[in-house]
Design goal:
The structure is a homotetramer. By secondary structure, chain A is an all-alpha fold. Chain A has 2 domains: 1-48, Arc Repressor Mutant, subunit A (Orthogonal Bundle); 58-201, Tetracycline Repressor, domain 2, CATH 1.10.357. Chain A has helices at 3-22, 29-36, 40-47, 50-69, 71-80, 86-103, 105-114, 119-146, 156-177, 183-201. The N and C termini of chain A lie far apart (55 Å). The C-D interface holds C 22-23, 25-26, 113, 115-117, 122, 151, 153-155, 158-159, 161-162, 165-166, 169, 172-173, 175-177, 189, 192-193, 195-201, 204 and D 21-23, 25-26, 113, 115-117, 122, 151, 153-155, 158-159, 161-162, 165-166, 169, 173, 175-177, 189, 192-193, 195-201, 204. The first copy, chain A, binds a DNA duplex through α1 and α3. Chains A, B, C, D: Keywords: DNA-binding. Chains A, B, C, D: Residues 5-65 form the HTH tetR-type domain.
Chain lengths: 205, 205, 205, 205
DNA sequence: TATGAATGAGCGTTCATTCAT
DNA sequence: AATGAATGAACGCTCATTCAT
């Protein structure tokens, strides 16, 4: 790895850690520099402004989400063939992706929190993350609905929102309450969430 | 109403509005003063510090929640008699409380957002809001479980968290996306959420 | 005088003094604050930015020039009646205005120096000072030319520029060389300049 | 030309161009490096400090003035023989030297402007440029005065200053106003200036 | 030699807070 | 009680300068 890339990585890691704990506005660039063990000045050499640093963080979060976490692998399931069931989608997320979510929870927290206050970042995330996932999800749901598996009274948007907020609530609670991330416990909770949602969303067989 | 109370109300309203939009740290006391149409100095006469103002806001949110929104009325249902069903709890929240939630959504957003970064406020909210509700909810669920109505594989905490995050997700989405609050539409969404949760949580009859 | 006006005057005086000595860019707002015996912060309360302070200085220079130094009194002579001669114009400037020029030489130096590097200020000075004087001067010269007093080979612009640069050169030299301003000596030099210009500009009688 | 000399020339040209436009303090070494198409670091290899670069510029200006523009050729006229008239001095400057002045006006502007704020540079210019010219000019004037050609009421210094400021005013105006340099027009103006000064300085014949 | 990377010192600016009236 | 005036402390950011390769 080049020297510059190494330094940028240090900066980004330090920034994500502190911003996720204190919020963007309460985080001073001097703190980031100290934690990253570099001089404050190169932060501005590389990212121009503090806001530029935040944008880089959100872009990295988008990239990670796209590459490693949700989008591409889930997309494969969602779009591949019709015989994938909602059950498999849940399992895929819960079994395969928890570790990645946990490893990047600070990054994701920063993205989700700051998106509230920065219109440009919100549009970026909507465009790069939310809308693509939603689009594939609709295609997938069309198949499931045609198979008669889904409660027809429910909108796609509500279903997706319930899945997302349900699965995330375990992580979110620990982030807000500043509690440790016990992978076994989180998986146990997510399986209960899955149980609720499967029964709630699918038609009674 | 006394002049002081009148002024305090103006300050609090202005503060809630701006902080809910920009976050606590990004909100300047000078902005609040301008919007409240008072001099910056009396903010500090009344609340000593900016943090004191935030504490007053959170206390007001707790009070509103306790008095008008969730706690006391729901408490009545939850604790009154055993023949109240989960169905009624949902309806009560959805039918009676939406307007109050909508009217106070900025206040609630400030509380929920800032609780992340201020330990003292977090403890206050846990102590005054979350734990009391949770305590009553456990009593209520004990009854429901004894009646054989609840899926025994699900923990109380998961169920409560799903209800809360599910019902709030409609409001939250609009807050984050800066969309208008259409009461009819929100009620429609909440009824779908109720449908999912009822089926998901209760035992198949 | 109000308290605010008093403070603004202190700031402006200090700023003019230091900027005239070191130039705008080399002058630190902290220095100005120390010399003015006020806190750095109110400079920005009153003038928003350092550039805003410079603009205030130039505006003050324009005002002083208009009110006290050149424009209005000279305008009176230039436009009043045709029987004012070039000789009287010179005398008026030399006799009556030297003290005012000397008293405000730092202010004028700042204006003339910084106008080079700030397009907005340049346009302001052209619009408020140079063009009005030039306009009146043309009217005056028309009369003098019609009386057959002026060398017809010379353009108005060249004549005015020679008068201005000639009369100012005594002051300018002392400013650049950081020499003391001896009023008697300056008046002596100006009278020589007048002698040169009168002979040079007017037709041989 | 050696590679180093080539690089130094690029740096100096870039520096003169930018400093003449924005002033020394407002000019960043990084800008100079970009315009000169070299790395910022070698500026400091060659000139040690930014001030060292400015000193090099002023020294180059002195050298150019001495070698090519004013000093040596004028010196030749001034000191060679007594039968050179003021008229010839003017013509020499106006006819032969305008192009050189125009080609180097940025260099000269930097020298004249920065001399105000740097005592060491001021002394250098006084010692190398102003005083030598003035010394020769006095000798020349002595001859002219002995021939009864010069108005005895005028001091040498005033006369020299009027010549310098008069001839330069055409260039100066265009520099300050950021106007194009039209050689024909400038020459026309200078001839008018010469006309004024000749009549003004010499005794009526 | 030449340069990309890095930095210390300092600047303009902000903002919660205090004080005199 | 209420405010205009003032400020200390810090923050984001800049830039001439150095260093390692």
């Amino acid at each position: 790895m080049g020297k510059r890339e190494e330094t940028e990585k240090q900066i980004l890691n330090a920034a994500v850690q502190i911003i996720s704990e204190k919020g963007y506005n309460a985080t001073k660039t001097s703190e980031i520099a100290i934690l990253a063990d570099i001089s404050e000045a190169i932060i501005f050499k590389y990212y121009k402004t503090k806001k530029g640093l935040l944008t880089a963080i959100v872009n990295k979060a988008i990239e990670v989400l796209g590459r490693e976490l949700a989008y591409k692998p889930i997309q494969r399931i969602l779009t591949s063939s019709a015989d994938k069931s909602l059950d498999e989608v849940f399992d895929m997320i819960i079994e395969d992706r928890i570790q990645l979510i946990l490893k990047n929870h600070a990054l994701l927290k920063v993205m989700l929190t700051e998106v509230q206050y920065h219109t440009d970042l919100r549009d970026l995330v909507l465009d790069q993350v939310v809308n693509p996932i939603f689009k594939d999800f609709r295609v997938f749901m069309k198949v499931q609905r045609d198979l008669g598996l889904i409660d027809p009274e429910l909108d796609d948007e509500i279903i997706l929102r319930m899945i997302a907020s349900g699965l995330f609530s375990s992580v979110l609670k620990r982030v807000i309450m500043n509690q440790p991330f016990d992978e076994v416990e989180i998986k146990r909770e997510m399986l209960q969430v899955k149980r609720i949602l499967m029964k709630g969303i699918m038609l009674n067989s």
